[in-house]
Amino acid sequence: MVSTIITTTGQVTIPKEIRNYLNLDAGSKVDFVIDENGAVKLIPLNVPVQTLSGILHRPGTKSATLEEMETAIQEGASDCG
After folding, report:
1. 30, 74, 32: which is closest to 56 by C-alpha?
2. Could you tell me if 43 and 49 are in contact, meaning their C-beta atoms sit under 8 angstroms apart?
């Protein structure tokens, strides 16, 4: 396990071992995601989107079809205007 300290301004230094593992360099962007179990995940945004597939999967939920997603988008758009 790798640890770090939070500064008084809320900043942390990502340890070199983790930066290397995630292929992060100065200027890299990351997202923080709280999963269904309450764990916080650091997601590097410098990776192809295909490698992120399934990271937010919740057991027991079914995948939506493209048609279902398009319908939901249309319904959401019609609610806005």
Report:
1. 32
2. no
The SS3 assignment for 21 reads helix
Q: Which pLDDT tens digits describe the chain residue by residue (81 residues)?
A: 889 999 999 999 999 999 999 888 888 889 999 988 899 999 888 766 666 666 677 778 788 889 998 998 988 887 765
Q: How far is it, in rounded angstroms, from Cα 43 to Cα 18?
A: 12
For residue 22, the one-letter residue type is L
Instruction: Go through 39-69 and write b for each residue having 16 or more CB atoms within 10 A of its CB, e for each that does not.
Output: eeeeebeeeeeeeeeeeeeeeeeeeeeeeee
Contact 49, 38 (CB under 8 A): no
> Could you give the 3-state DSSP secondary structure of residue 1?
coil
